[in-house]
From TrEMBL:
InterPro entries: AB_hydrolase_fold, Chlorophyllase, Chlorophyllase-like. Pathway: Porphyrin-containing compound metabolism; chlorophyll degradation. It is an enzyme of class 3 (hydrolase). Belongs to the AB hydrolase superfamily. Lipase family. This is chlorophyllase. Pfam families: Chlorophyllase (PF07224). Keywords: Chlorophyll catabolism, Hydrolase. Its EC number is 3.1.1.14. It comes from the Eukaryota. It comes from Brassica cretica (Mustard).
Amino acid sequence: MSSSSSANSFEDGKYKTDLLTVGLSSCCWKKPSSSPIPQSPPKRLLVATPVEEGEYPVVMLLHGYLLYNSFYSQLMWHVSSHGFIVIAPQLYSIAGPDTMDEIKSTAEIIDWLSVGLNHFLPPQVTPNLSKFALSGHSRGGKTAFALALKKFGYSSDLKISALIGIDPVDGMGKGKQTPPPVLTYEPNSFDLDKMPVLVIGSGLGEISPNLLFPPCAPPGVNHRDFYRECQGPAWHFVAKDYGHLDMLDDDTEGIRGKISHYLCKNGEERRPMRRFVGGSIVAFLIAYLEGDDSELVKIKDKSHEGVPVEIQEFEFKN
């Protein structure tokens, strides 16, 4: 089934979407009576899926540092409504600076998809794992790049068809990368075997919100540096006047959710940035997974009338 479902990727798509929680002890939607109980995922998952019968590409979204996967539910709804199954694992609740455990866990979850995911989706929905995209926000973006690059001894048997970094961050600044460092500071050094890459940046991410907190996406370890090291095809969009956490849900619950409104320099509201991130992801995936680049070309040519933010910077490598 084609995911090319809407004339405007920045608006909701045509597919009705459901949000599912798959826990470590969850059972399944469709288990033949003669089959053993399917294995639960290595980590708890939040899954946004179309409910209409069909086969859909799969996108994995890795959360940012100390954030909850539930904070991305509105972004997941948006992408899924255009005909994608979006999976967001909760990689940890508490973590130090080292990301090796997240890289390892992500590889294990991706390997689980081919044997377990189908059992936890509605019976009429089939995941198309030949069209699998890996994405991540902030520290999750670093983890996504690390796994795609196969740099640290962990990889997945499932081929990654596309890679997306949502304001990715590799530490506190140049020379202050968190282990293991992903950036090499060598242009075009990321050898991803022609895997298409989208890097989305926030214009306010490099600015400190106040005297107490540093920038959430500091220069030297942020989206510009990740894009600079990508080979083509690679796209780089930067949203002006929006911050590092502005793609999260409008209402993020709990102490961490409340802090997320003050930790970074933010825009006036989250909805425009969330729509921009979701629409850019949809346009990129439809172009590279479905072969329809009309939305992406309109964004590139600045002829798309539905872009909800001002694009501060745009770059493309073929």
